[in-house]
Please model this.
Amino acid sequence: MDEPGHWTDAPDYSPEEWRTGRGEHLPAAGAPKGEGGDGTTRGEGQGGAGDAHPGPADDGDLPTAPATDDGSDSDRPADPEYDGNVRADTEDDGDVTAAATTADPGEAALPDPAPTASEPDAEHSLPQPAATGARPAGAADPDPATPPPPAEPAGAPARRIGWAADRELSGERLVRRTARERFRVGLRRAPAHVPDALRTPLLRSHRIAVLSLKGGVSKTTTTLALGAVLARERADRVVAVDANPDSGTLGRRVPRQSGATVRDLVTAIPGLRTYMDIRAFTSQAPSGLEVIANDSDPAVSQIFGDQDYRRVVELLSGHYPIVLTDSGTGMLHDTMRGILDLSDQLVVAATPSVDGASSASVTFDWLAAHGYEEKAREAVTVVSGVRSSSGRLIRVDEVVAHFRQRCRAVVSVPYDPYLARGGEVDPEWMRGRTRAAYYELASLVAQEFDRG
Model:
């Protein structure tokens, strides 16, 4: 206790010194009360309890503050960790509020009169506890002229390009791959002899449209297979566009590298200048064929119309030598007019069935009746049996003979379980006869490339 530097050597914080600093009148000093256990009086500087509590004679007149067990006194230095005489509150806003019960022996338990609103005592008033949630000291008040930012609607997802593609039931998500496909074991090669016509050089961008009056006749499969062969065997960029005015399935048949759709492309056309700008809106198949998907969002109420299609094809023709179009079902929708006007060559899809063959025949009738007779004569018909094996019950030779009288050439594609599942279309995984049939189709189409 007598070592130098002990807290008893600190500056005087006695009640007399504190009231003297405030300029208050000091009352007459009373007799010291209380003695220590050794018979000595606990005076000033000893931390005796007699200075902080009135004697027994004053108990009836003044309320008595609870006594402490350690003999502490009010002239003990204020320590935030000590809770006998000082209340420290730093958890809410970082401000420390201290209320010391320091009084002389005659007025030990009387609280100091709080300053009123009319008589503020700013010089000597102690800081008051801050309300819960108040700003820290020194924080600037918010500008009342600046309105708060608008709150986002609860549960409203941020709309982004291609957000609906995450929910599509695509072939990549649904189709189970075989062990051969997963590990790419024993890849099948292209036909030993690739016709020279397949590599005919192009003088300008060539536009090919795959169409039919009826749905479910393998238009999308034919588009993907033809585009895959052309992209694999040529050094040209090849792109396929889903021009279904409602919602097509072309984008679900390739691994999605971009969630953008043809509607997003239409919106962004004014800012697109280079091939890399357009590449952000396409997904590329393993063969190298690029695909621009259609929008599958059911909330979209505006169709992909004729003017939209013309703008897209005009843009793509400046960056892709070969542009394929997977048209929608029917022939009377608005987009079909632009497809027929801009196409250089038509591919008509049919199936080895009564309704599939008759619908393809009506398609030729419609083309001839609406001013496209010449394009109908130069078209190629694909009788595709990749959806079912019904060709064994249908006279396919009669179907082929009928269309040979109405167009330039006919290709018969046999049934293939790899294509029947409706997933990706890669020539390497097709059966030999199926792959050869699509190579024949690509060669027939490429024969028209040198016509300019």
Notes: Residues 150 and 156 are 14 Å apart (CA to CA). The first helix runs from residue 15 to 22. Strands lie at 206-211, 238-243, 283-284, 290-292, 322-327, 345-350, 380-384, 409-413.
